[in-house]
Amino acid sequence: VEGRNFDIRKQLLEYDDVANDQRKVVYEQRNELMDTDDISDSIHALRQDVVNGLIDRYIPPGSLDEQWDVEGLEKALKEEFDLDYPIRQWLDEDDQLHEETLRQRIIDEMERAYQEKEELVGSENLRNYEKAVMLQVLDTQWKEHLAAMDYLRQGIHLRGYAQKNPKQEYKREAFEMFSRMLDSIKHEVIAVLTKVQVQRPEETYLAQQPTEEAFQFQHEEFSGFGEAEPATVADQGEDAGQQRPFVRPDRKIGRNEPCPCGSGKKYKHCHGRIQ
User: Fold this and answer.
1) What residues contact 254, with CB distance under 8 A and at least 6 apart?
2) Residue 110 near residue 194, CB atoms below 8 Å
3) Do 166 and 154 contact (CB within 8 A), yes or no?
């Protein structure tokens, strides 16, 4: 029994070693990120990597023009990065565009748009935002990866029924999952930074200033938090003659009789409710 327990503990340690190795890599990257104020060079490299990877899916390296899926590339850029690039129009208007030059034009357009954002919000603000996005995406993806690793570990022993070594299968799949996580981090960071919309400071200020129409509209819609609108001075004068303070009479009032307060309602629907 002790020998079997030792084997179990040894296997658990081997599984833990895989997760610990990945944890070291992630924590090293995170600590390095925390100690760096400017990660713009890293963002630039990530953008090149992510965009080229996307283009490869629709324009394989070394492929002929007839093999290009231009419409698919346009759709992917729109769905993943919210970019409306008329790639087909570019190709029709410029005969000099080939695989490499087209790649470079797409990246140049993204870099130009990103540079405009930096000019609007300032370099320091954008550097801080880049770092915050990177940390948030890294932490979220790592937590999801750990949960997926636990799920894999719980069912990996079933691979033995297929004449496969569970430990080797675990290491192989854990490595593949880790690689996919890293790719997902890069893609999500670039997607967030590409999609983010910025405004000039003066545009933000104007957008926050309520107009005269807005004040008037809010005033007209206000209804006293659901209460009845207050009566005018003239209305209050008329109501003063119709209603008076309620004084409970000596005799018992029938529930269907008019209420003595002068409201015109039946007693059971007015002050009779409080009895």
Assistant:
1) 267
2) yes
3) no
- pTM for this predicted structure: 0.66
Q: Is the pLDDT of residue 89 over 90?
A: yes
**What gap in Å lies between CA 129 and CA 113, rounded to an integer?**
16
From 169, 191, 206, the end of a domain falls on 206
**Residues 236, 146 share a domain:** no
Element (H, E) at 186: helix 166-195
CA distance 64 to 264: 89
Q: Which pLDDT tens digit goes with each residue over 260-270?
A: 777 777 766 77
Per-residue pLDDT at 52:
95
Do the beta carbons of residue 229 and residue 238 sit within 8 Å? Answer: no
Q: Is 96 helix (H, G, I), strand (E, B) or coil?
A: coil
Q: Is residue 137 within 8 Å of residue 188, measured between CB atoms?
A: yes
Exposed, middle or buried by CB within 10 Å (0-12, 13-18, 19+), for 237?
exposed
- Reduce the DSSP state of residue 266 to 3 states and report it: strand
The whole domain housing 274 covers 229-275
| The amino acid at 65 | D
| Contact between 200 and 60 (Cβ < 8 Å) | no
- Token pair for 95: 């005969």
Domain assignment of residue 221, yes or no: no
The reply to whether 144 and 11 lie within a common domain is: yes
Structure tokens at 113: 């748009």
